[in-house]
Amino acid sequence: MIGIIGAMEEEISKLKEIMENKETKVIAGMEFVQGSISGKSVTVVRSGIGKVNASACTQILADRFGVGTVINTGIAGSLKNEINIGDIVLSTDAVIHDMNVEGFGYPRGQVPRMDVFAFPTDDGLRSIAKEICEKELTNISVFEGRVLSGDIFVSDRATKEDLKKTFGGYCTEMEGAAIAQVAYLNGIKALIVRAISDKADDSASMDYAEFERKAIENCVKLTTRLIETIDTSYYCQ
């Protein structure tokens, strides 16, 4: 089973439309829609915004649906000048940027007593997704790099520069690292797919509504093709 998580309904509604043999289960206030896309068993769910919602959603997918792979699709703010609105970032790993226990000697972003600083995501999934982007989304650029997550909508240049300098992130959003952490703890393959909707600076609020729709379209197209392409090893735990 492949789990597809989007924080907002707009990020998953098109996927639910193309699903076949749909059945909905409501757990913890979330609608988990089971069915198939291109013959692959999938569960699509809107987690809600923020790390706690995303974590709860991922653990339910692991416990109740037995997913072997989680794909988190959505939008993000760019942290690099060369990553433009509409472009796609594929996660190499993910860091919780608002985790701060420096007072106990940990670096910013380190979850205390975890054996990793950045939560890894699946190299195989990323490779397949990159190939799809390069062949089929030729009007945009695709980047591979670190995704930063925190319960903050980054909309000022000073915060953006701090995140770039401290963590070397490619984009910032509010769910991916939490999903990657839960996937890591459960031994589940994961990939964070982010289409850029704003530049995560003083122009963020101005750009966001205008470019959100196109960014989501790119994410949905990539996610659909990724489901079609991956083999059975990615949906069996």
UniProtKB/TrEMBL annotation:
Its EC number is 3.2.2.9. Pfam families: PNP_UDP_1. One of its GO terms (biological process) is L-methionine salvage from methylthioadenosine. It comes from Lachnoanaerobaculum gingivalis. This is adenosylhomocysteine nucleosidase. Keywords: Amino-acid biosynthesis, Glycosidase, Hydrolase, Methionine biosynthesis. GO terms for molecular function: adenosylhomocysteine nucleosidase activity; methylthioadenosine nucleosidase activity. The lineage of its organism: Bacteria, Bacillati, Bacillota, Clostridia, Lachnospirales. Residues 2-228 form the Nucleoside phosphorylase domain. It is an enzyme of class 3 (hydrolase).
